[in-house]
Amino acid sequence: MTTDFNSFFQSAITVDNVIFGFDGQDLKVLLMKRGEIPYMDDWALPGHFVKQEEDLTSAAARILEELTGLRSVYLEQVKTFGKAGRHPMGRVMTVAYYSLININAFEIRPAFIAKKATWFKVSDVLKTSLAFDHKEILVACIDRLKVKVKTQPIGFELLSEKFTLTQLKQLYESVLQHQLDKRNFRKKILSMKILIDLQESQEGVAHRPAKLYSFDSERYNRLIEDGLHFDISYPAMLA
Amino acid sequence: MTTDFNSFFQSAITVDNVIFGFDGQDLKVLLMKRGEIPYMDDWALPGHFVKQEEDLTSAAARILEELTGLRSVYLEQVKTFGKAGRHPMGRVMTVAYYSLININAFEIRPAFIAKKATWFKVSDVLKTSLAFDHKEILVACIDRLKVKVKTQPIGFELLSEKFTLTQLKQLYESVLQHQLDKRNFRKKILSMKILIDLQESQEGVAHRPAKLYSFDSERYNRLIEDGLHFDISYPAMLA
DNA sequence: AATACTTAGTGTACACTGTACGCATTCTTT
DNA sequence: AAAGAATGCGTACAGTGTACACTAAGTATT
Predict the structure, then answer these.
(1) Contacts of B84 in chain A (CB under 8 A)
(2) Residues 193-212, chain A: which have Cβ under 7 A from strand D?
(3) Which fold would CATH assign to domain A161-225?
């Protein structure tokens, strides 16, 4: 009886992690150069096999930490890819996660530098090809991020603690891939009252310094219970 | 070298399918009574191991067809559950799908009747417990359905080809779990111009018969390209 | 010291649509 | 013929999405 089932226990499971960052200008993704076959020397998403006694989410978090040293960052499961022939080594399913990190607040771990991990502009990567079906995985994660960023306040995860409204707008524009009207964007964000005015200004810029804000997550949670609708999806907020 | 990897190829993958139906009154889900250990005699989601050479999506479709005889119905992957100890037989990941079917247009397959498959009101199931972590899977699928039904015209999948506006409203109410205002709902739906007025009426009802409509998917696709925003998420369309 | 340069920051008018709400209509049943 | 039941329609108001242009506050240059 159990012998029938044994044939099913021959698959491997991997986790691939699309790590997004934002450099103030463009949405970026962290890719690694493969040092082994298959797809030797191609760029790929950071990922690894899930260990026998490891939870899926733990595996995703482990990969992220090994690569960036970061713990407890935003991490979301997106989709599982399981086409029969997608991996030359056997039956391998991969669970795709994406994470949002502050690109300035970490350094790539030494152990991984050997393997060469680099930030790429997402828009550039979309024009190239990646190892395995990683291009498809990336696209799925981008699509999910686009949807999510409009209705959940996760965009802040990509910024530093303190940020300007222009930076925030820039971020939305690079994720959503279209321009937003400055005045309407400010009005909308400020009307939600989920930002803390830090009473500080930018320094070291060659123009009028902008005011700094930070995201007030406690207030956000309170307002959500009162029926706040976080929504940055202006059909015609295009500039 | 390869021996290192062999230890990873010891997992099994299953697909579990949350099959939703709508009886005109309540949202329902199809559950099966387990005929084997573990969880003998408990209610569970229809599911099965994914075969070695089978795509994930194919496996989900196969399970659905074996159980209901239906092909090419709405089927969406939701999430993968992979806690280390979730299955007593070994490492088993399960990929959760949900599907939407017209509850009236099919009959449960004989082969499965032995195992006893029955429709349950979703609201009732949420009060009970299910085999494995199937309760958690069900909740994830319900949550996804709630989100999706507001912005994609998938609700029609649960209805017959011809339906009345009251039936459609009833459907939304049972999925979203709150009442909608009749007049505003009609106005909203009709203003989208995605329904075909069939110029027919209900028959056999003990009151004024309602007009019948059907969903015009071609027109919907055209309108989407022109920027239509399908959205049935009235914050205060509550009655 | 004055000027040019760069980005931050603000307000108003209009149109649209979400929202609330009540009554007449059409068919069946008794 | 009258009562019962669900269908089907319209209007007024408030809120907000949307479009749109100029001044303010700094830095760098001459």
Answers:
(1) 52-55
(2) 201, 205-209
(3) Arc Repressor Mutant, subunit A (1.10.10)
- Asked if B18 and B141 touch (Cβ cutoff 8 Å), the reply is yes
Q: What is the pLDDT of residues B217-235, one digit of tens each?
A: 999 999 998 888 899 976 5
Interface test with A, best of B3, B8, B86, B144 (most A CBs within 10 A): B8
pLDDT tens profile B134-167:
999 999 999 999 999 999 999 999 999 999 999 9
Structural fold of domain B159-225: Arc Repressor Mutant, subunit A (1.10.10)
Q: What is the mean pLDDT of chain B?
A: 92
Query: Any idea which residue has 């080594």 for tokens?
Result: A89
* Residue pairs between chains A and B whose CB atoms are closer than 8 Å: 93
Q: How confident is the model at residue A136 (pLDDT cuts 50, 70, 90)?
A: very high
Point out the residue nearest to D28 (C-alpha to C1'). A206
- The per-residue DSSP string of B171-213 comes to HHHHHHTS---HHHHHHHHHHHT-EEEEEEE--S-SSPPPEEE
Q: A220, A229 in Cβ contact below 8 A?
A: no
